[in-house]
Design a protein that fits this description.
The protein is mainly beta and 714 residues long. The protein folds into two domains: 2-88, Sandwich (Immunoglobulin-like), CATH 2.60.40; 115-358 and 377-402 and 411-713, TonB-dependent receptor, beta-barrel domain (Maltoporin, Chain A, Beta Barrel), CATH 2.40.170. The chain is 3% helix and 56% strand. The chain has a 22-stranded antiparallel β-barrel. A hairpin with an 8-residue loop joins strand 10 and strand 11. The longest helix has 6 residues, at 115-120. The radius of gyration is 26 Å and the shape is globular.
Length: 714
């Protein structure tokens, strides 16, 4: 083997299992060197070695038998090597031990959508959560920020990045205007979503989790530029033999967008901001992996928002947000069946808010760490044990105008340290039967209390393409910030999940039907005062854990990428029946963020070899409940049904060696006048509609890259 200057030697190919399904995130390495690559979502890899001579190329992935082949590398040549890995658990594709989540990949994560699916889903706005909301089990609440899952409000879902909780997963909430998540899809190799029954690895979420796994080494060195009505972005990566560095810069200014969009809310200062990120990745011949990243952003906005006390008037709401987060992740292979992971992060968020001329600022930070050891045992057993510690602080200040025209500053704050131990084991007892059991212990220093949460999942394969899964578990979560900031210390809230599903997967088609029942116990309940619909009210009542509720329903999902050439489409439908008696509800009722029926139809069509691709999404939701003080039945009135048709057209073209994508997105093509609910003024109780920020919008942009897009990804 010799080392020297190479004239672009390339080794590439595809890694599949014995069912010809792609194997994602497999390691392809030249033995005895640090030169290697990871397979992408299609099982494809590419590496450019800096050596010549006879080498041994090795492919490995947990759950599969290692494969290798000898190759004589010559200067400047291109080699195509495909691998077929055999499962060392009989057949990994025979069974997926999961319920409450979509398809599992070979790293035992839940694979929902590829990054390009996120970008090309019409109506999603290139936002991860926007695309997730086209899946069953979710609700799109256009005037509120967050991920709403199976009857849970936005506080009941957690977002996880590389195993660590994102405290501020969304841009800061503006009353009446839903905010997007902080993530760009290209940052992640795995996007996972669980609508219930999730792993013992995580807690503090009564309803579901969105789990994101960042990319490892970049596939190649790149430079990208994006221009659109909302601003400009630049990103790039530099790949070395065993390390890589990536970075991005963005400038956001939505003034050009709002100049042409017809809005229902006055944005007297459209959002303007700057953001940047840098990430370093390193690996070695042992396939250890280290990732270190830093993200910083700052933006300002000003909006006239509905006055929650007098909905016939508006208040000026100005916001300046400064946010930063640093993440570190290390994975070490002890041997080919055992590895450890260690991760840590620190985030800091500062919101400087003026509402109706009065300041009301919020500061929060989170320091956390997690360590795990994972091992594959004989007899088809895979297990891990881990621990995590989270230390977070929240502080809110309000300036109030007191009688006599004097100002008074109120300060509320709390500090929490959560410690957890957890373990989970998956056993493929037979080729057609699998069981996964876990347990999680948590201790809250703020409450001085602990809990134990068992989880259990099982699956059985019925035939070559179909399987049945069931899951159950107990989930705990602290009270919402508004109670802890007010000095209230209720016990943990609890939810118990029961889930059963059937899934059929055959080549490029998937059908899934899932039923669930969720019991809410020990919810926070305010003990005094009449019902107040103002979500921003200060808590003055004592509270306890006497609240309760339930959510039950059925989710249906169908995806087909085969029946019609160049067409990929999916249909998702959810029915939910849910009631709860919590917070300051006077009785049990369906919450005002719930639509009982939700339907999404998503289609993507490539127009031959023209370079044009079209995507459309139709969304329907039955009317949400709203509070009418003139009706005796609490939260019994319903708003009109919600409908939205979105269309995106993109065109792939080249200018010399510059590969480009131009796109135009139209939201609410039919200009349907959606009404999200109503508010009533006091004391006359005049009725005022709650409207989305805008009815119809058009968004135009272009993305330029020095590297070629794979058409099969678009």
């Amino acid at each position: 083997m010799t080392t020297g200057t190479m004239a672009q030697t390339v080794i590439k190919g595809k890694v599949s299992d014995n069912q010809k399904h792609p194997v994602q995130f497999a390691t392809v390495v030249i033995e005895g060197t640090t030169e290697g690559a990871f397979t992408d979502s299609l099982g494809e890899y590419s590496l450019s070695p800096s050596i010549t001579g006879k080498v041994n190329i090795k492919v490995m992935n947990i759950g599969y038998k290692t494969d290798s082949v000898s190759l004589e590398i010559e200067n400047g040549k291109e080699y195509k090597l495909d691998f077929i890995l055999k499962s060392n658990q009989g057949n990994l594709n025979e069974l997926v031990v999961t319920a409450g989540a979509f398809e599992a990949n070979n790293d035992r994560k839940v694979a929902v959508l590829r990054p390009m699916d996120i970008y090309t889903t019409a109506g999603g706005g290139g936002d991860i959560v926007g695309a997730i909301q086209t899946l069953p089990g979710t609700q799109k609440v256009s005037n509120e920020t967050g991920l709403f899952v199976r009857g849970g409000d936005a506080t009941e879902s957690a977002t996880i990045v590389d195993g660590l909780v994102m405290q501020n997963a969304f841009f800061t909430d503006v009353p009446g205007v839903a905010q997007r998540s902080r993530f760009a899809p290209y940052q992640f190799k795995g996007i996972s979503f669980s609508s219930g029954g999730y792993s013992a690895r995580y807690g503090e979420a009564l309803s579901g989790i969105l789990e994101l796994n960042t990319n490892d080494l970049p596939e190649k060195s790149t430079l990208n530029l994006g221009l659109n009505q909302g601003g400009i972005t630049m990103s790039g990566s530099k790949l070395n033999n065993n390390s890589g560095i990536e970075g991005s810069l963005s400038y956001t200014n939505l003034q050009p967008f709002y100049n042409v969009a017809k809005t229902n809310i006055n944005f007297y200062k459209p959002p303007v901001g700057l953001g940047g990120s840098v990430k370093y990745t390193w690996t070695n011949a042992n396939h250890d992996l280290f990732k270190l990243s830093l993200n910083i952003s700052q933006y300002e906005s000003g909006t006239d928002v509905l006055n929650p006390l007098k909905p016939d008037t508006t208040l000026e709401f100005s916001l300046k947000n400064v946010y930063s987060i640093a993440n570190a992740y290390y994975k070490h292979f002890i041997n080919d069946k055992t590895y450890t992971t260690v991760a840590a992060s620190y985030s800091d968020n500062n919101d400087f808010i003026t509402w109706g001329g009065l300041p009301g600022n919020k500061y929060d930070s989170r320091l956390q760490g997690r360590a795990e050891i994972l091992k594959e045992f004989p007899h088809r057993i895979f297990a891990y044990i881990g621990t995590e510690v989270q230390r977070y602080s929240v502080q809110q200040t309000y300036d109030t105008l007191m009688p006599g025209l004097s100002y008074d500053t109120l300060t509320y704050k709390y500090h929490e340290t959560l410690t957890a131990l957890y373990s989970e084991a998956e056993w493929k007892a037979l080729k057609w039967l699998g069981i996964k059991a876990g347990i999680r212990y948590e201790y809250s220093a703020l409450l001085g209390k602990s809990n134990v949460a068992p989880r259990l999942t099982a699956a059985t394969r019925l035939d070559k393409y179909g399987q049945v899964s069931v899951a159950s578990g107990i989930f705990y979560q602290n009270a919402a910030d508004k109670y802890l900031l007010a000095g209230r210390r209720p016990d943990f809230q609890q939810a118990v999940h029961y889930i059963a599903n059937y899934q059929y997967t055959n080549e490029s088609r998937t059908f899934r039907i899932e039923g669930y029942y969720k019991s809410y116990n020990e919810l926070v309940k305010e003990l005094q005062g009449p019902y107040n619909p103002n979500p921003y009210r200060l808590i003055s009542s004592p509270v306890d854990n006497s609240g309760n509720g339930y959510a039950q329903g059925i989710d249906i999902f169908w995806r087909d990428k085969k029946s019609i050439r160049n067409l990929d489409y999916w249909i998702s439908y959810s029915y939910i029946d849910t009631k709860r008696n919590y917070e300051n509800y006077p009785t049990s009722a369906t919450p005002d963020f719930i639509s009982n029926n939700n339907l999404n139809i998503v289609g993507k069509y490539a127009i031959g070899s023209t370079g044009f691709n079209i995507s459309s999404t139709y969304s329907y939701a039955s009317g949400r409940r709203y509070y009418d003080p003139g009706v005796s039945d609490f939260l019994s009135s319903k708003a009109p049904d919600y409908q939205n048709l979105a269309v995106t057209l993109n065109y792939i073209f080249t200018i010399n060696r510059l590969f480009s994508v131009a796109y135009i997105s139209l939201d609410n093509v039919t200009d349907h006048k959606n009404i999200l609910g109503y508010r009533y003024s006091y004391p006359n109780y005049d009725k005022y509609p709650i409207l989305p920020a805008m009815y119809r919008s058009v968004f135009v942009g272009i993305m330029l890259s020095l590297t070629e897009f794979k058409k099969e990804d678009l």
